[in-house]
Amino acid sequence: MPSILVTNDDGVHSPGIHALAAALRALGDITIVAPVTESSAIGHALTLARPLRLERVAMYGDGDAVFSVDGTPTDCVNIALTMVLDRQPDLVVSGINKGFNLGDDVTYSGTVAGAMEGALLGIPSIAVSLERTRDPHDFNFTPAARAAASIAASVLEKGLPARTFLNINVPRRLTHGFRATVQGTRNHVTKVTQSIDPRGRPYYWIEEGDSEWHPDERSDYHAVKSGWISVTPLHPDLTRRDALPLVEALPLPPSVAVD
Ligand code: MN
């Protein structure tokens, strides 16, 4: 039986992670190691400046091993591999996130980072995100969980190239099947609201602004807006290779050594 590690960034009590684990149960032995509290938009952060606590979560008595870590998704993957599992898992699945992780936003995403950490540690890995609505409680995770299980089964069978992971985004209005996509791009609108706290000091909320996506038929954004499940292969390498000649041509001194 394959061993499957499940994590997320919405926290160990998010219904999305339990819907995901339930759908994956037919494929292998499930171990959940997830943040004790929500840590969305925490990216690929690793906690180095304080100790971490690992707790068994007893309330989920359906046979899975469920643990919480008071840290990030990346912390969870590392602690799972070293302290919880007795062997390297065959698959890491992160999600199901409440809200898309499309285009440039994958760099903020703790959900995507959980899968990226799995890939960096040599394990085939998948991130799964579901479109959100205005109502923060209105989520039907079933279609996304089914999609995740289909992808997971094929990844368990076929594997993935080294350092490669899959970013799955599932729209609420699902009218088609799976589509291979590239990351879309959008303009980034910074929206920060200032208010005054009861002690008279200002505080700030960073919010998602109204962004516009650049038209691209191959993009993850275009796919989900057209009713497809978007499947983007990602890797951690951010190098812009076609800009290397530009860097090589910069007028820089031959040496900055101090003599
Ligand atoms: Mn999240």
Instruction: Write down the Rg.
Output: 20 Å
Derived from helix and strand composition plus strand pairing, the structural class reads: alpha/beta
- Give the domain tally: 1
| CATH second-level architecture | 3-Layer(aba) Sandwich
List all distinct small molecules, including ions and cofactors, that are bound in this structure. manganese (II) ion
Largest sheet: 9 strands, mixed
* Count of DSSP strands: 11
Distance separating the two termini: 63 Å
Task: Report the CATH C-level class.
Answer: Alpha Beta
Could you spell the SSE succession in H and E letters?
EHEEEHEHEHEEEEHEH
- What is the overall pLDDT average? 95
Blueprint (SSEs and pairs):
Layout: E1 3-7, H1 15-24, E2 29-35, E3 54-56, E4 65-69, H2 73-84, E5 91-98, H3 110-120, E6 125-130, H4 142-158, E7 165-170, E8 178-180, E9 190-196, E10 202-208, H5 220-225, E11 229-234, H6 244-248
Parallel strand pairs: 1-2, 1-5, 2-4, 5-6, 6-7, 8-11
Antiparallel strand pairs: 3-4, 7-11, 9-10
Helix pairs in contact: 1-4, 2-3
The chain binds manganese (II) ion (MN).
Descriptive notes:
The protein has 259 residues and is an alpha/beta fold. It has one domain (3-183, 215-245): Stationary-phase Survival Protein Sure Homolog, Chain: A, CATH 3.40.1210. The chain is built from six helices and eleven strands. It has a nine-stranded mixed sheet with strand order 3-4-2-1-5-6-7-11-8, sandwiched between helices. A two-stranded antiparallel sheet has the order 9-10. β6 (125-130), α4 and β7 (165-170) form a beta-alpha-beta unit. α2 (73-84) runs parallel beside α3. It is globular. The model has no long low-confidence stretch (mean pLDDT 95). Residues 9-10, 40, 97-98, 111 line the site of manganese (II) ion.
